[in-house]
Fold this sequence. Notes:
five-stranded mixed beta barrel, elongated
Amino acid sequence: MRRPGSEETILGPAPGEPNPPACTPWTELYGHGVYRFLLSRQWVILTLVALVLIPTMIELGFWQFHRHERRVAQNALIADSVAAKPVPVEELTSPGHTVPRSDYWRPATATGTFDTAHEVVVRRRTNSDDRVGVHVLTPMVLRDGRVVLVNRGWVPAAADQHSFPPVPPAPRGEVTITGRLKADETTGASGIKDLKGLPDRQVMLIDSEQQSQLIGREVLGGYLEQIAPEPAGNTPEQIPEPDHDSIGAHMAYAVQWWLFAAGVPVGWVILVRRERRDRMAAASAGTPAEPERDAEAIKATPSR
């Protein structure tokens, strides 16, 4: 459109047409895709890492939660077992019997005579003070001729690993003892390797079948941890009652992992918004003012 009496040409809409929207750095940035930076290599990698971290952290949280549940269930089992009334050991186990988990730590009584000739020590065991020593495992011959293994407790190991340590003698004659029933030990359950070629009367694991072969008698499955009567001079040191009060920090770890999982998308959004803001600020600072450029274009346009 030409202004009357003027050589200048006015750029603008035709009559009846709406005015075009003002051109700003933000609209130019949106026109070119304000979030196109998300397609860059570093942002694609960052997004993929976030997508992997979220389910991984959720799974780790559930792993800790299930450990918490197992610990609570075990504490309840121990508490119920140790509080149960003692019964004769013959009612809970027999030769070749695998002690079920439901019978772990059940109090049981045994009446018989200790067979000290076949007594062995179990290596690399700790006491309540975490001192390394041995457990004294003494067979008890029951009235019916069968045998039950009795873990009488902990004593220090000999200075020479090849020597049999000094062990307080077991009571003579027929005695009645009370103990907590435990299952035979295995490498898979205990993590202790059953080493071969050990010195005489030394073993790594408490195994009723292994001891049955050495003794030449039928041995009841599992063994008893003696808790009564107490030995003279408190030696061997009896094994303390298993802990069933603490539950550990597994639940706290589970919540921590889930909070981390929730924080990943929040952190990703914050980073995206910060990147968008920085790019818009850079575009604004690097773009000349629009009115000045339009005035220059008007002056440079020849009249018709």
